[in-house]
Amino acid sequence: MEKNHQAFLSRSDGSSEVRELLSQNGLGCLAAMTIRVHGEQSGFCGLASTRVQDVSKTVIEVMGTLCRVSRAALEREKDEIKLLRQALVFKNMKEAVIVRDNSHRIIDFNDAATQLFGFRKDEVIGTKQSFSRNVKAENGRDELAESYQSNGKWTGEVECISIDGERRIAETVMVPLRSKHGMLLGRVSISRDVTERKMAETESRHARERLSLALDASHEGIWDWNIVSGSLYVSKRHYTMLGFDPGELKANIITFQDLLHPDEKEKVIRELKREVLKGSERFSTEYRMRTKSGHYRWIFCRGKVVSRDERGRPTRVVGANLDVTERKKTLSALQEKEEQLLHASKMEAIGRLAGGIAHDFNNLMTVIIGQCDLGMMEVDENSRLFERIQDVLKSATSASSLTQQLLAFSRKQNPETKKINLNELISGASSSLPRLLGEHIRFKTIFDPVLNRVLADPNQIQQIILNLVVNARDAMPRGGEIVIETGNVNAPSIMLEDVEKLKNGDQEFVLMSVHDTGVGMDRETVKRAFEPYFTTKEIGKGTGLGLSTVYGTVKQLGGLVDIVSKQGEGTDVRVFLPKHPNDEELTAKINLHAMKTRTVLLVEDDEKVREFIAEILQTHNYRVIQAGGVDEGLELCSDFEDEIELLLTDVVMPERNGFELATEVMRRWPQIRTLFISGYSTEELSKHFNSGSRLELLRKPFTSEILLQKVHNMLERA
Fold first, then answer.
1. In what order do the strands lie in the sheet with 441-446?
2. pLDDT reported for residue 337
3. Is the torsion defined by CA of 452, 456, 462, 463 positive or negative?
4. What is the Cα–Cα distance from 328 to 336, expressed in whole angstroms?
5. How many angstroms separate the CA atoms of 113 and 121, rounded?
6. Are strands 184-193 and 232-234 parallel, antiparallel or unpaired?
7. Could you give the CA distance from residue 461 to residue 484 in angstroms, rounded to a whole number?
8. Over the Cα atoms of the chain, what is R_g?
9. 64 against 701, higher pLDDT
10. Can you give the pLDDT at residue 635?
11. How far apart are CA 372 and CA 399, in angstroms?
12. How far apart are CA 291 and CA 173, in angstroms?
């Protein structure tokens, strides 16, 4: 190069640096070239001189050579820097990177790979060590193996196996490694350890499954109400408990309000707002919600405020709903049973009280009736005194029938059936019924003059009449008319399927109909009318036992009950009882005066009753040995064992009862017969003695004629 020429090389774009160089040395520029590396400007090459002259061909060639040499040097420098940077990135990547050649040998292995797989780099370089296996898809395809064969890219999850056998899950990307010219040099795999994330996802999924199972088991519907936005989330169970398909209803607060029972809507909304706004964190309430079928179910709702704004106002509330309809039905039935049990206990207590009163009353009536009998024997039948005694006897007999009803109520007496005329029985009760009904109700009877007789207990029939009349009265709070009608009917006038169920095979029945002009009953009420404890009356005004008692009594007598009723048109309750056979029972008149003296041991703790019985028997040629208790009676039996033929004993006595006395007498003196006198029934006897025992019952109160008839029959029996 000439002396006055100077070449220069710069990494800059050349403008400022060249100007400064030329200025300092007093040079002028002859030629300049830009040096580019990989398409980017990396420097500047120029030729300067002290004088301005044309650039020669030689100068241009020199400058071209200079630029090429400079560019090559710069390219090597940049490649080294790039490789250095890549090495640093490769080494410090958090993802595990493995580079393999075409023979599947490992040619590079970063620190993250060492941490994931447990192998050092020098242990695996040059080996074909495998660290993972493909997590195959459900169709069984091994996508990782397919990617090797196709030399394509693959992304997926693999199960990694470390040097100590620990298994972990990694998200892996595998790409082919190629040269500038596209030649396949190997493959690079980049793996990120997602084991903890997968475990958390699995645990979260299991937790959701457990929660879902728990909710299904508890039958609770979950809801989440965003008060600010008004949105409402409800679980599937919330839909299904009301009969809807999941998602069938819009999940919002308006839908919830529309499903509430009209009678409770305002109250429920008011209560919820009050509980939430007053600062309660938890609340609970019950309400009815409409189902898809239109019915209503009882829902128990529990909720909790989970977030509030800066002013303390609730912004989000979550909770659960539970269908408690069946539980409420069960509780209601249980409460009803408890009430029935309480009522039964009360009735039993009243029954025991009634039984005790009836027992004492029977003793009084026995004395009164007996003394009337004795007085009438001593007075002229045509005298005024005889008539008065007769009136007393009739009243005492009527009073004794009330006693029998008390005993029947207390279940201390079995029905005493006899052939009766319903016309006579109804007529006897008619005198007291108007007072029971009140002045606002008219009472009328229509009798069949040739009414057939029935076999029944008069007390039971009177109870049936009373129950039906009281029901009819209660159905006419504003007044009306009650008509009791009797008649003879044939089977065709009754429902044939019911006739087939009758115990009695007769085709003729006696009808007693009780008709009222009251409010009547609908069809459903008529169907349930005979159910125990079913009543349409207000609480405290009906036990629900009236018609069920009538039904049970009539069925026991071999009959049936029918109800014809319509709302607003009154009710007609018809009782059908089997007709009694027409053959008359002829009872021969016997002489009640003993033909010879017979000895009777009388054991009775009530002195008045004992004196009356003794006097009646003694006036009819009986020898009476009296005792006031069981111990005294046993002593007298021992003293007169060869003479006593009949033991006549009360049942209820202080200390020891008549059953104990009879048992001892039967054991020691089996030839002596026993006749009990009591207000109770033969049912009590059957609890203590078998049916073949030589004993019978005389029920209090009784007349002298009945007493003598019973004693005569006992002693004359073979």
1. 441-446, 480-490, 508-516, 571-578, 560-565
2. 82
3. negative
4. 12
5. 9
6. unpaired
7. 13
8. 58
9. 701
10. 92
11. 14
12. 54
Q: Cβ of 337: how many Cβ atoms within 10 Å?
A: 11
Select from 119, 89, 121 the least CA-distant residue to 108.
121
Q: Is 358 helix (H, G, I), strand (E, B) or coil?
A: helix
Q: Quick one: how far is CA 508 from the chain centroid?
A: 49
Amino acid at 410: S
Query: Which residue did the predictor score with more confidence, 418 or 260?
Result: 260
So what's the pLDDT on residue 58? 65
Q: Which two tokens stand for residue 526?
A: 């008529």
Across 180-194, 287-301, 415-429, the highest mean pLDDT is recorded for 287-301
Decide if pLDDT at 485 tops 70.
Answer: yes
Residue 362 confidence (pLDDT):
76
One-letter amino acid identity for 23?
Answer: S
Task: From residue 113, give the alpha-carbon distance in Å to each of 25, 144, 174, 187.
Answer: 59, 19, 14, 15
Residues 6+ apart with CB under 8 A from 93: 110, 112, 190
Neighbours of 10 (CB within 10 A): 18
User: Mind listing the pLDDT tens digit for each residue in 123-161?
Assistant: 888 888 877 765 444 444 456 656 655 667 788 888 887
Instruction: Give the three-class secondary structure for 396.
Output: helix
Model pTM above 0.90: no
Contact 648, 603 (CB under 8 A): yes
CA-to-CA separations, 56 to 1, 68, 452, 614, in angstroms, rounded: 11, 19, 161, 178
Q: Tokens representing 100?
A: 């393999």
- Check residue 113 and give its pLDDT: 85
Asked if residue 83 has pLDDT above 60, the reply is no
**With 0-12 CB in 10 A as exposed, 13-18 as middle and 19+ as buried, what is 534?**
middle
pLDDT at 398: 67
pLDDT at 539 over 50: no
Which residues lie closer than 8 Å to 508 by C-beta, 6 or more apart? 452, 488, 489, 490, 491, 578, 579
Most confident of 42-46, 351-355, 365-369, 476-480: 476-480
CA distance 359 to 29: 152
Distance CA 87, CA 471 (A): 106
Long-range contacts made by residues 342-349, C-beta under 8 angstroms, separation at least 24? 343/533, 343/543
Is the pLDDT confidence value at 466 over 60?
yes
Residue keyed to tokens 């009949």: 646
Q: What H or E segment, with its residue span, contains residue 567?
A: none
Res. 583: pLDDT tops 50: no
The whole-angstrom separation of Cα 37 and Cα 122 is 36
- Closest by CA position to 34, among listed 61, 63, 1: 63
Instruction: Return the ∠ at Cα 599 (arms to 593 and 605), rounded to 5°.
Output: 105
Q: What distance in Å separates the CA atoms of residue 476 and residue 654, rounded to the nearest whole number?
A: 50
What is the structure's pLDDT at 623? Answer: 92
pLDDT tens-digit readout, 624-667: 999 999 999 999 998 898 899 999 998 888 888 888 898 899 88
DSSP string, 411-445: T-S----EEE-HHHHHHHHHTTHHHHH-TTEEEEE
**Beta carbons within 8 Å of 7's beta carbon, 6+ residues apart:** 1, 45, 46, 47, 48, 62, 63, 66
pLDDT confidence of residue 122: 87
CA atoms within 13 A on the CB side of 119: 24
Which two tokens mark 414? 């079995």
